[in-house]
Please model this.
Amino acid sequence: MRLIRRASPAQSMIYLAPIFALVATFVAGSVLFGLLGVPVLDALYAFFIEPVSTLYGLAELGVKAAPLILIGCALAIGFRANVWNIGAEGQLVVGAICGSAVALWLYEVERWFVLPLMMLAGLAGGMLWAAIPALLRTRFNANEILTSLMLTYVAGLLLSYLVHGPMRDPDGFNFPESRLFHAAATLPIILDGTRLHLGFPVALAFILGVWIMLSRTVLGFELKVMGQAPRAARFAGYRESTVVWFCLLLGGAVAGLAGLFEVSGPIGQLLPTVSPGYGFTAIIVAFLGRLHPVGVVFAGLLMALSYLGGESAQIALNLPTAVTGVFQGMLLFFLLAADVLILYRISFSRAGAASTSGNQAS
Amino acid sequence: MTSEMALMTLLTIITAATPLVYAAIGELVVEKSGVLNLGVEGMMLSGAVCGFAVINLSGNEWLGILAGIGAGMLLALIFGVLCLTLQASQVATGLALTLFGVGLSALLGQPLVGVAYDGLPSLPIPYLSDIPVVGSLLFNHDILVYGSILLVLSVSLFLYRTRAGLVLRAVGDSHDAAHALGYRVILVRYLATLFGGGCAGLAGAYLSLAYSPMWVENMTAGRGWIALALVVFATWRPGRLLFGAYLFGTINIMQLHGQAWGFEVPSQIMSMLPYLATILVLVLISADRSKIRRNAPACIGKPFHPTH
Model:
């Protein structure tokens, strides 16, 4: 078996690769279920069908998908430009902290401006947390993967400190949680009887904005060139530091906003854990969505389904929730493996491929 | 602070540094061959859970250690297939490996939470450990601590005194030239990656078998990432890597002993120290771009396309 480079990337494979990956994950997942001693068909039903079989379930899909779509889209922009913001989880946490701080500070005040102020605080907090790796990369050449990741651990510890101490509910019997936010500090629900909140339409609006930016503005073009041909970008005068700052600040702002949406929406207060790993799953969402805004929407919905599926499988079949993480990791693996077919073709012949045109990798 | 406390502290520094030594020296070899493996954290966790599981099933420490190494190597094999054979992006694959490793270890470790284990037995070296202070400090550890020092020495000798090490460094610095000379770049990188994975698995196994003998989800707490930063901090040299690992061991311990020494700082803030220190050392070393350029393997992270 050899890999022969195609003359040009296969367009069909760009769309087929995620589907191949999904099928492979299904198969591998079924094997996993079998090994765990769980009835395979029941598990697949609990995982993929049951969560979305009711209106409430579909709304929950939106609740889980909103942060994934928001953050995944922002990360996708960065990945296109070779800016690897792996610390989105930390930026989400800091945004949640800042937004909660505003909510608790304005606890006595029940006016209309509380929520917008909280959103601004969330944006600002996330941006601040992302500005650190941006500064360290542009000034000191420090790898942003490692710095943003380290800051994620720091953010988690900061949250733990705050809910155990300064931001703890004084009437809360010493539980590590903040006061429940009042009505003016809570995100409006857009579908009665569910938990679907403002975050979902905001996410879709963001997708639209990004799509327009990428396809119609010079900045979008700069980003794409930066990632695909860095030397050409330098010759064209595109400054790497501008792109790094933009991508990281955007990612941080969006992650912070998503964090704020979580604490003022589904959670309603500040807890020691405010996210089931949205910042990390968003990385998978970005890749699964082919780094394209529209793809990110579908990928986000799919990943949200995997979260809901894990919960429902736990209830129905006693499967540990860690299965969700395994599924998500496997999906990314298979996607990366399937991606090879975009640039290469598999040949099983033994004859040398030297005579075939278009096989010389430059 | 009494001399007893000082001795205890120094002992804990050694045990805290050992997993970093293993993970970082493995990653150093991998990066020297030109591969950037970001999946160290996932490999460490899988080594931790498999080592712990096997030792509880079999009662044999050697099997546990081998299981940890094997788990790390298995994940490294997946990494190798995706990146070296299928030419996938090394950064994306490494991240995928970490996410997968975290999830898989959580899944496998479910039945192991709360299971007790006494820890690896210590092996005092016969006469040396009887020397008053120094003896119990340096010569009364478990086998893996001794192993870590030996490993760093061996890697250093291998890389700089053997022909095979020269080939590995050549593959990392200029894979096209190495290929033109007839060396099998992909094979060398596979072997280096498997070695790195085995070391990371061993580091994880040390954590769950000796450092804190138990299994907790995510028990590596970012040590794999710190190991990656350590390799940069050491500018890809084994001697400096050992120094860096012990420096970080010290910082880790400061966080634990901080309150005992009278620092009135909340424990979570103290726990931030290793991560903040990692950022600091990264910044200090990376800022010297010429130093990085001189010492980093020139082909690191670049996929190798054999042209015929």
